[in-house]
Amino acid sequence: MPVITEIEDLKRIYKRRVPKMFYDYCESGSWTEQTFRDNCTDFDLIRLRQRVAVDMQGRSTASTMIGEDVSMPVALAPVGMTGMQRADGEIHAARAAEKFGVPFTLSTMSICSIEDVAAHTSKPFWFQLYVMRDEDFVDRMLQRAKDAGCSALVLTLDLQILGQRHKDLKNGLSAPPKLTPSVMADLATKWGWGMDMLRTKRRDFGNIVGHAKGVSNVNSLMAWTAQQFDPQLDWEKVRRIKEKWGGKLILKGILDAEDARMALDVGADAIIVSNHGGRQLDGALSSIRMLPQIVSAVGDDVEIHVDGGIRSGQDVLKALAMGAQGTYIGRAFIYGLGAMGEAGVTRALEVIHRELDLSMALCGRKSVEGLDRDVLLVDEAFH
Ligand code: FNR
């Protein structure tokens, strides 16, 4: 077992273990990937302020996200096809999150169903919804999430039209993979992944399979899903979904102060400042660059979360100090999952937790509560 001290270690093992098609699906952004890259590199423009001779006993990373206690404010972001990175991937990730005391968000595009994840966990998780053209489908998903006891709905607003990722088209991304000669050659070197997949019953689209019935050929994920998203989603529909859901609502994919005000009007409990991990509008600014404007526009009135490019506890610390109450990791936990299943997700969380705790201490802070820009030295791009 290699020594794992940072998220990058998990990524290296992940790359060796998982079929190229699914590695590329995770490790890419849309078009030129500018926004995908900026999400990470913009964190480098923010530096931490070292402080000394401060009593560091009794530190805590505990906090709350939408009123739920968390051992650190780092949730697992919704990631489609998690169950293709590792057999039963959503269950592995949800269990790791539950044990660590952080929220897990199940994607609409999951392989394991809502009910499957609920059956393998004991605490409520969050459910992420994509709004589809078929209103019955949306209603059914809301009902299933309610029945499974999900404690929040994460409604994603930045993917009504699918961004284009070159690698997915070139790889012929599909789930399960179509066995072309190049896919078979790749799979031959990744037999551990294949054995796991053969063992599980969950190789289908758990959440959307009912909806997909009648679509005779669901080979091409991109083509099929692109037809399902509702391009007419507007704030009125968001309002209606909020009413139907009736519980905690988190609006995901807000990257602009005006949209943040709309989200506030609708009555969201929280917003996630996000550009979908650089997978949608290539050329948009990074989430961390947009965060300060959004915090100053609505930060007093709604809870603000952020995702995109978080690969370390230092990144989490910077996001919290910039005004976020909570953060999410997408790829960082997928690397762990693909590398080592549940243990890998736990390892990713441990690495980030340790980095957050130590960095906080070296900045002279004992708690994530009350972190502010005073712990930062910020490049002028952020002013
Ligand atoms: C995503 N993301 C995403 N978001 C969502 O609302 N529903 C989804 O099904 C997916 N699917 C998905 C698949 C993959 C492979 C990735 C990498 C991302 C976006 C995700 O929730 C989150 O916004 C980003 O992953 C955050 O960026 P980092 O942490 O991956 O840099």
From TrEMBL:
Which Gene3D superfamilies does this one have?
A: Aldolase class I
Active-site positions on this chain: 276 (proton acceptor)
Which cofactors does this gene product need? FMN
**Pfam families, per database record:** FMN_dh
- Answer whether the UniProt record assigns the keyword GTP-binding to this protein: no
Enumerate the residues binding FMN.
Answer: 78-80, 107, 128, 130, 156, 252, 274, 307-311, 330-331
Which InterPro entries does the UniProt record give? Aldolase_TIM, Alpha-hydoxy_acid_DH_FMN, FMN-dep_DH, FMN_HAD, FMN_hydac_DH_AS
Tell me which domain of life the UniProt entry assigns to the organism this sequence originates from: Bacteria
Record-listed E.C. numbers: 1.1.2.3
Q: Which GO terms describe its molecular function?
A: FMN binding; L-lactate dehydrogenase (cytochrome) activity
Binding positions (glyoxylate): 25, 165, 276, 279
Which UniProt key words apply to this protein?
A: Flavoprotein, FMN, Oxidoreductase
Q: Where in this chain does the record put each FMN hydroxy acid dehydrogenase domain? A: 1-381
Cellular component GO terms, alphabetical: plasma membrane
Q: Which family does it belong to?
A: Belongs to the FMN-dependent alpha-hydroxy acid dehydrogenase family.
Entry's NCBIfam families? PRK11197.1 (NF008398)
Q: What is this protein called?
A: Lactate dehydrogenase
* Organism field: Profundibacterium mesophilum KAUST100406-0324
Q: Which gene encodes it?
A: lctB
